[in-house]
């Protein structure tokens, strides 16, 4: 039935080759117009898992707390102190420039020059609050005496270590960014990064350095570095072309698979533009990873056509035979890869879901460009039998050593290989058990340690008391927190406990401010540095705190404790969150709910937890799909075990590799592991397809394995090595995550082909001996060609 359907498709496409290629050409031209309009787009909100407990807290109190999407700029004197008229003038200029940047929340901008930076003095009648720098002062009025007064006010207000560095050489400006402006237009992070760099160039000179960090700067730098992807992909394309020419010794056979894969890339980019998507900087590698899948299938097509040419068939006959023989196994392999990427939709992170759609489109289009377009286009060329004979002789010469490798099918070697594979699987599973979900390095993990962003981040972290990463714990009270001293006392105990936890640098909280204000209203008596237990006094102090953003909301139903962390490593976030959850479970208080978690640490932790929770079900769905498709193709449980076991072993070896190279499982690395499964399925389908076909024609399992490996082994190994060499060039990228992806992909390509060429045939032999067949092998209709 299915075989008849494939024959009908063959007659349709090859009977109307001009129409088939013409329609493809017109569609490609149209999609190219839209593909050229595709732009790189990033967004802070796209990084957040929708519906997660932490994100719900963050979104609910976003306007009342410190923004997680924060921009931090530091003006640092290269020589001497920041306390000079010139130094403070430069801080003023940068503050003004930041205030009027697009999408800046102007009320949230803070520096020594903003009115929300005030010093509170104890007077006879209580507190007297005044700005550190009076609003009537301009930068032109600065003189040494005035600068000294400002310095004393900053020290008295407790801003040394927060807005002024401990060594007094720099001053900080912070601002919260909105992902959308008042009109609802999304912030263009790539353009915004250019604006920030222009600002840096304007105010940085031989006397002063301007340091910039924050999500907007980080993602902007990643986007800038991602532009180098095109260069590395061009190198990979060139290496692939040279390798394919060395393999085929034909310019036409070299260009054909590459053009077909590039065609699907154009369709993919054009469709993304039509769907209203951009290309996220963290997902920019995915289209080129899918391109690798296309090259893999293209080489199998070329291999099949050349083999048929050597058997005396014309180019048209060879192309039709290749189409008929590879359409179903190739489609099954691509559908498996497609299902693999679709499972990424399980992760409720908009950026990951866009990435899943991007990859799925590319893989889906491969069915047309690599399984239909390529053989139809190849049939339009003319290749002589002499060329095919020469190509076959070269292939036979290259495959001589494969006869030795094919000996894995001999029972004594097959049992040994299966035993070694089982031992490797156990070892890899054991060694990968402690792999980390999330980032393993401080700073921006996508950038190298010597990148300007990471150098700035380290400098700022070493010069200021507050960590650059923070976790906000929200306390919700049934009644108004301003009238209930029990709330402040409870939070004070919590803050005191968390201050002693590893990974916490400092704590800023609502009860800490209560204590400070209480001491101030009692003439600075240190004994009064406590949370007041009198409701009236407690309420009056809360009213004072309400003027400061970030610690409570207007109706006092929410108060906050901010835990500033040493870094945002996954281990640090997990440890601190576990401590908070333990406290929540062991210290209940009626009428008070402890909620996690806002701050950039909360957003990162939510992302890590979603990746961790989605990984196992996602992989189970992927393998379930593979098992179903393998059974559908071969109707044999032996095939399911032989094809899927090597994939499983390769996956765990990949996890072990990630652990050893300190590569965390993130939204950037997870698609690579999924892709590795898709590539491994390609190898498995093509090898087992020929194995089953030879067995159906009466060959014993040992001979069937040998013939299958001689027929497709060279093409399979060649494809894996070519792709591995191509992506290995990414190791030299300025982006660390691209470099890591290159290493991981190259490793996974090689591991998968090793598993496919050793473990798969060995397992097939062992299963045939352990579970002997009761009747001769009969290949299903989809495999008979």
UniProtKB/TrEMBL annotation:
Pfam families documented for this protein: MMPL
Entry's localization field: Cell membrane
Highest rank taxon of the organism: Bacteria
Protein topology in the membrane: Multi-pass membrane protein
Bilayer-spanning residue ranges: 12-36, 225-246, 253-270, 282-302, 323-347, 367-388, 413-430, 616-634, 639-657, 663-688, 709-732, 744-767
Cross-referenced InterPro entries: Acrflvin-R, MMPL_dom, Mycobact_MmpL, SSD
Keywords for the protein's UniProt record, in alphabetical order: Cell membrane, Membrane, Transmembrane, Transmembrane helix
Region forming the signal peptide: none
Coiled coil: none
Residues of the SSD domain: 253-380, 649-766
PANTHER family in the cross-refs: MEMBRANE PROTEIN MJ1562-RELATED, SSD DOMAIN-CONTAINING PROTEIN
Protein name (database record): RND transporter
Lineage, top ranks: Bacteria, Pseudomonadati, Pseudomonadota, Betaproteobacteria, Burkholderiales
């Amino acid at each position: 039935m299915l075989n008849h359907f494939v024959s009908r498709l063959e007659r349709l496409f090859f009977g109307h080759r001009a129409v088939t290629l013409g329609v493809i050409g017109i569609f490609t031209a149209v999609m190219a117009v839209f593909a050229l309009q595709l732009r790189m787009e990033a967004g802070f909100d796209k990084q957040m898992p929708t519906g997660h407990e932490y994100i719900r807290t963050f979104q609910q109190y976003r306007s009342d707390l410190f923004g997680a999407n924060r921009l931090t700029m530091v003006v640092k004197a290269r020589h001497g102190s920041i306390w000079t008229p010139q130094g403070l003038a430069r801080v003023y200029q940068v503050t003004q420039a930041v205030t009027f940047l697009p999408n800046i929340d102007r009320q949230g901008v803070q520096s020594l020059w903003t009115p929300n930076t005030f010093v509170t003095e104890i007077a006879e009648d209580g507190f007297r609050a005044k700005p550190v720098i009076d609003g009537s002062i301009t930068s032109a009025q600065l003189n040494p005496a005035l600068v000294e007064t400002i310095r004393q006010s900053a020290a008295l207000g407790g801003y040394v270590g927060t807005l002024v560095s401990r060594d007094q050489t720099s001053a900080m400006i912070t601002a919260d960014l909105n992902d959308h402006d008042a009109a609802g237009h999304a912030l263009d992070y790539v353009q915004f990064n250019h604006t920030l760099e222009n600002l840096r160039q304007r105010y940085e000179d031989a006397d002063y350095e301007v340091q910039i960090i924050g999500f907007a700067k980080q993602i902007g730098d990643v986007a800038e570095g991602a532009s180098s992807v095109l260069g590395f992909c061009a190198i990979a394309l060139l290496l692939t072309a040279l390798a394919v020419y060395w393999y085929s010794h034909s310019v036409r056979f070299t260009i054909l698979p590459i053009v077909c894969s590039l065609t699907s890339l154009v369709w993919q980019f054009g469709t993304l533009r039509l769907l209203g998507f951009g290309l996220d900087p963290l997902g920019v590698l995915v289209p080129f990873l899918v391109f690798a899948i296309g090259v893999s299938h293209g080489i199998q097509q070329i291999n099949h056509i050349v083999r048929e040419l050597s058997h005396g068939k014309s180019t048209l006959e060879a192309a039709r035979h290749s189409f008929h023989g590879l359409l179903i196994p190739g489609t099954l392999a691509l559908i498996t890869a497609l299902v693999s990427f679709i499972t990424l939709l399980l992760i409720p992170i908009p950026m990951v879901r866009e990435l899943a759609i991007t990859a799925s489109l590319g893989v889906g289009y491969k069915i047309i460009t690599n399984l239909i377009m390529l053989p139809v286009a190849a049939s339009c060329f003319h290749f002589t039998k002499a060329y095919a004979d020469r190509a076959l002789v070269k292939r036979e010469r290259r495959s001589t050593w494969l006869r030795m490798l094919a000996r894995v099918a001999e029972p004594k070697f097959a049992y040994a290989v299966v035993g070694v594979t089982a031992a490797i699987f156990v070892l890899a599973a054991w060694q990968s058990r402690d792999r980390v979900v999330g980032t393993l390095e401080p700073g921006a993990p996508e950038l190298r340690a010597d990148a300007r962003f990471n150098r700035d981040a380290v400098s700022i972290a070493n010069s200021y008391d507050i960590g650059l990463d923070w976790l906000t714990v929200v306390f919700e009270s049934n009644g108004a927190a301003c009238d209930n001293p029990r709330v402040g006392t409870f939070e004070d105990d919590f803050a005191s406990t968390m201050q002693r936890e590893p990974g916490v640098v400092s704590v800023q909280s609502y009860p800490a401010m209560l204590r400070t204000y209480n001491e101030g209203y009692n003439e600075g008596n240190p004994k009064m540095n406590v949370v007041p237990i009198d409701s009236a006094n407690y309420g009056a102090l809360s009213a004072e705190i309400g003027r400061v953003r970030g610690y409570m909301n207007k109706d006092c139903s929410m108060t906050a404790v901010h835990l500033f962390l040493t870094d945002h490593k996954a281990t640090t976030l997990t440890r601190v969150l576990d401590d908070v959850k333990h406290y929540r479970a062991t210290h209940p208080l009626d009428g008070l709910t402890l909620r996690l978690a806002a701050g950039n640490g909360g957003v990162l932790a939510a992302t890590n937890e979603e990746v961790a929770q989605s990984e196992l079900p996602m992989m189970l769905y992927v393998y379930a799909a593979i098992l179903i498709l393998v059974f559908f193709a071969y109707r044999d449980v032996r095939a399911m075990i032989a094809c899927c076991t090597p994939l499983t072993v390769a996956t765990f070896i990949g996890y072990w590799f990630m652990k050893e190279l300190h590569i965390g499982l993130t939204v950037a690395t997870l698609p690579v592991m999924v892709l590795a499964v898709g590539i491994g399925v390609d190898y498995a389908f093509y090898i087992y397809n020929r194995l089953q076909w030879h067995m159906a024609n009466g060959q014993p399992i040992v001979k069937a394995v040998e013939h299958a490996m001689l027929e497709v082994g060279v093409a399979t190994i060649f494809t894996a090595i070519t792709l591995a060499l191509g992506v290995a060039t990414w190791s030299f990228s300025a982006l660390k995550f691209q470099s890591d992806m290159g290493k991981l992909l190259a490793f996974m390509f090689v591991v998968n082909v090793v598993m496919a060429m050793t473990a798969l045939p060995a397992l097939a032999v062992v299963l045939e001996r352990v579970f002997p067949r009761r009747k001769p092998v009969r290949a299903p209709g989809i495999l008979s060609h």
